[in-house]
Amino acid sequence: MAACRACGASLSETARFCPDCGSPVAARCPRCGAANDPSARFCASCGGPLGGPQPFAEERKVVTILFADITGSTSMGEQLDPERMRSLLRTYFSSMSEVIESWGGRLEKFIGDAIMAAFGVPTAREDDAERALRAALEMLERLETLNLTFRERHGTAMQIRIGVNTGEVIAPVDPNEQLVLAGDAVNVAARLEQAAEPGTVLVGERTYLAARNAFEFDPAVELSLKGKAGAVPARRLLGVVAEPSRGLPGIRAQLVGRDRELRTITELLDEAIETARPRMVLLNGPAGIGKSRLMQEFVRHATESRGEIRILRGRCLPAGHGITYWALGEVLRSFAGISLDDPADDARRKLHDSAIEILGGLNLTDDEARRTIHALAMTAALSLPDNPLEGLEPEAVAAELGRAWPRFVTALAARAATVIVIEDVHWAGDQLVEMLDRLLTRSSGPLLILITARQEFAEAHPRFGAGSDHASIVSLRPLTEQQSGELIGGLLDDAELPHELRDEILAKAEGNPFFVEEMVRRLIDENALIHDSGGWHTTGAALTVALPDSVHALLAARIDALPLREKRVLQEASVIGRIFWQAPVERSAGNGAVAPALLALEQRGLVLARPTSTIAGEPEYIFKHALVRDVAYASLPKARRARAHADAGAWIENLAGDRIEEFAELVAHHYHTAVAGQDSDLAWEDDDAGREGVRAKALGALITAGAGARRRYGINKALELHEAALALAVTDEERASALEELGDDHYGVYHCDEALAALRESLALAAGPAGRERRVRVATKIGRTCARWGAFRVKPDPAMVEEIVTRGLEEADTEETRTSLLILRAQAHLFWYSSEREGDPVPLEVRIAWAQEALEMAERLGEPMLLSRAVTVLSSLLWRRGSFAESLDVNLRLLDLVDQQPSRDVQADTFASLSDDLLFVAGEPDRAVDLAERGYRLALGTSDHELMHTTAPLMRALFWAGRWSEVPALIDAHLAAFVKEKDMSCPEVQAGPPFAARFYAETGDVEHARAAAALVGEGGTMAKVRSSRRTMATVVADMAQYALTTHRMDEALALTGDALDTAGPAELRHIAPTRIEVLVALGRWDELRELIERARPLVDATPLLKPIIQRAEGSALLAAGDPASATESLRAAVAEFERLRYPFEVARTLEALAELVDPPEVTDLRAKALAIYEALGARPHVGRVQAALRGGRPTP
Fold it and tell me: How would you class 152 by CB atoms within 10 Å of its CB: exposed for 0-12, middle for 13-18, buried for 19 or more?
């Protein structure tokens, strides 16, 4: 008789535990669960070690749960003697346990007369769901046999009902531990059992999906189960199908079935080289289809066959759904030879020196080269000293990046044919996607941009590459059955597989090369395929190994079958990412056996050692496939995941050193996931101090990373990071900080309603002496935001803005801050003006005095940005007063400051503003065109809003200067941008459609005129005009002029009449010319005289008004019966229009004059007018004058 090794007590042959001391008789294998002699070092069943490192106490697993319950057991108990009932149940439980264990299930517990079992613990099998269902059916069959005995011995029979469900649970890893499972999957299985009819098996949806090819089921029904918010689909199990289908270290087959795709990419590279023009290829397909393998084969082929060629690669990371420009940062670091662990000074030096050298062939100015290098550095989050882009608005930075990268790759291609590979673009954010588009359209030279992405990328970005003849999509489709067979043959050196097994692999892989490889590796792991000197051979196990129906199940089974040390290393590595390094894994795994485990994992084909590392001296690895990493990561308990992310964040933070900004988003991702990931609080249940430390680090990293993303114009990413920071904040100070950052983010993309809301909330939280600095800073930002009044959907209350700015000014303690706030206080007049309120409570002269004081302070400080703001505000206030000439003199000072502005958008705005002044105040259309063109060129590549700030004044200047042929292209640009910004109240945005309608009406292009007029309605321009008459004067003038040109007099009269009701001098100078023409056309002479008298004081500062009034007075004199005086007045108007060089108005006035002069002069005047109209392309006017010259009746 055997004896207990612990206490020596005698043991029966069937004993599992010692009856005296309770010690286990056999040691359970942690790998397969088989019983072993307690003294054994290795498992007699699977050969796995019985000692060694301990696994995690618990893991997340996908498990299939079976619940079985006896129906009617209460009444049965009433009928039977308790001892008889116990005997019956003992037989039942023993028999059912035997069935469950025979199918690989593990009993968790008996609950009264119910049984709960689990399939998939401690080791997952790829067919756990199938095993559970087979066990359930056999339990029903076994019960029929038992009932024969029960009726004979006990005079009764029993019925059971069974529920089976598959889902994720948290489960102990040690097979010797009591099996306690937790998770919703367990509860649903119990509820399914309760809903099942006696003698049936009710199956959950996930179980059905995993086993549907092997079993027959009833159609799904929707069940309302206790504790579940929604309906739960379930199916009754009917039975097994007639014949259920059955389902590399150092193994690398040749590329199969991709010759056509490889040839296509190679030909596009050749085309790029031959034409010296960039080409882009999007390599598209689902996970595992072979994108990376094809890309690798192309790179190898190109390197070997195309001579000198430069290949640079970058990969998009899934962390936080794409770290803004990480892939381009990898390209840049690869080019410059920068390691991730290089000291910051070394990294900066390498980047600067290599960029200077490569950009040298582009003939850039020193300033262009400097800005390009700094923009490249910002892409990789490297900080170079004396950065001219520092402090720019995010949009301006985005524009610089959009110029820098095309220059950079153009310079690369100028030296040698270049291939830039960007992998996994489905993880990329919009900013990177837009940048890739720019690389194609703005670069030159022999360049191929090769992008790999899953199918969801095309769904998210359907317009990517659209409209370009140089962008191609290569979609990888599943391999054919023949090609998959060739792949198997290549993997196994054409070894013969049993037909049944080969067919099963082909059927379940469905043409996915990765699935094929993994199934073959599974056979190797199970010793169904062995390799010896004679090659590959199948063993008798080949037909007993069940292949999974999903790659997830296959990978989970492979990972569960690993030795404990390797499994843990794989799980810890999955937290770092698909690419990982040995050091952080050692830090997390906490033992010195990581290196051999990684070698073993490499030999098993789960990870690959990369030939070079981005961290000098640190081995770098990559998961063979992203799905391997995903499955390993999913198996980690969430509590352990959280701790591992905190470890990863700390390691990266330590590695980054003074290059922390470069890694800020990655650090933020790990720290944030550690404390805010789903159920991450479980990691810190008994460690409040530890969680608080990580939370504080996460908050700081999110703030830093968001600010960095904003500087690179990754506004969506910045908002995501700062909203996450706000959710983590617990103190008023932390919330105020996050809200201030959110305000800056929204301001950067002209979301001023959202920016103001966030900044006001931040201001409210900045209380007490400690908050004074923030209060002053945020007050300045609120004033700055409200100065963009055209970017609000709902205009802010000017009294509120003024109160905040005034309080900030009272608390400001530096000259620079006081100057900035004083400028805003003076500018508050414009807030009142644009709000359509009754009026500014502060006299305009006081505002002007404040602006003058601020200008003097800015001059003392010598700060160009402050000086420009002060000049602009003072000029605007003088304009509002009607001092137009003085306003122009002040504004012209900006020309001396423009080159000192770091931001192209500020420079562009300056030129645009001065263009309007020169056109309408100085009467210099040619000079106005020159400045407007400079502004437009600077605005190209910036935001749609900024672009319209320059297209509108340039269209006006070209119209008045008579350069009409250049206008349509600008109208197209403006209207394309307008449809994206049509909700904005900015007058320059809204100016486009009315101007376009008027312009096309004058040229006779009725179709385009009507289309532009329709946009006026779509953009709500009329509503915006009614709510902002003061600031929309130029828009009203163009709308009225269009109505006048198309003979809709009542509309023109109403528009100009409404505008006049609230017009001050600044508005009158825009409205009066059109209103005068309307009154002349209608013969409303008394109203005309009143308006002329009202407008006459503006003539000296509004050159256009003088000849318009002269022409109108000529019409009035003619109507009054004084043709001689009328003629004199019209001749004076012609002379003045000619002096001003406004050709369209010259021609119109010549036409009017021709009606009054003697016949010899008529033809000459009309011929001159005709020549002007023809040069302009004003077709309706050409037709009218031609008819008059022929002696026909002129059309009105």
Answer: exposed
Chain segment 1045-1098, per-residue pLDDT in tens: 999 999 999 988 888 877 778 788 889 999 999 999 999 999 999 999 999 988
* Residues whose CB is less than 8 angstroms from the CB of residue 248 and which lie 6 or more positions away in sequence, other chains included: 491, 517, 520, 521, 524, 605
- DSSP for 261-330, written as a single string: HHHHHHHHHHHHHHHT--EEEEEE--TTSSHHHHHHHHHHHHHHHSSSEEEEEEE--TTTT--TTHHHHH
SS3 content of the chain, % helix, strand, coil (to 5): 60, 10, 30
> Is 825:779 a contact under the CB 8 Å cutoff?
no
pLDDT in tens, 507-565: 777 788 878 887 787 788 777 888 777 778 777 777 666 655 566 776 787 788 788 88
**Integer-rounded Cα radius of gyration of the chain:** 40
Burial 817-838 (b: 16+ CB within 10 A, else e): bbbbbbbbbbbbbbbbbbbeee
Angstrom distances, CA of residue 162 to CA of 124, 196, 1192: 22, 7, 99
3-state DSSP assignment of residue 415: helix
d(CA 784, CA 795): 14
pLDDT digits (tens, 9 = 90+) for 191-237: 999 999 999 999 998 888 778 767 899 998 988 887 777 788 999 99
What residues pair up with 201 in beta bridges, in sequence order?
162
**Cα distance between residue 1123 and residue 1129, in whole Å:** 10
Which two tokens mark 1135?
């002379």
SS3 at position 71: strand
The reply to whether omega before 122 is within 30° of 0 (cis) is yes
In which residue are the tokens 């000529």 written?
Answer: 1114
Q: How far apart are CA 653 and CA 700, in angstroms?
A: 12
Which residues pair with residue 621 across a beta bridge? 580, 609
> What are φ and ψ of residue 677, in 5° steps?
-65, 165
Query: How far is 514 from 625, CA to CA, in rounded Å?
Result: 8
Q: Is the pTM of this model over 0.85?
A: no
Distance CA 284, CA 425 (A): 10
What are the structure tokens assigned to 309, written together?
């060629």
Per DSSP, the residues of 515-548 read HHHHHHHHHHHTTSEEEETTEEEE-GGGGTPPPP
Q: Measuring CA to CA, which residue among 959, 952, 855 is closest to residue 908? A: 952
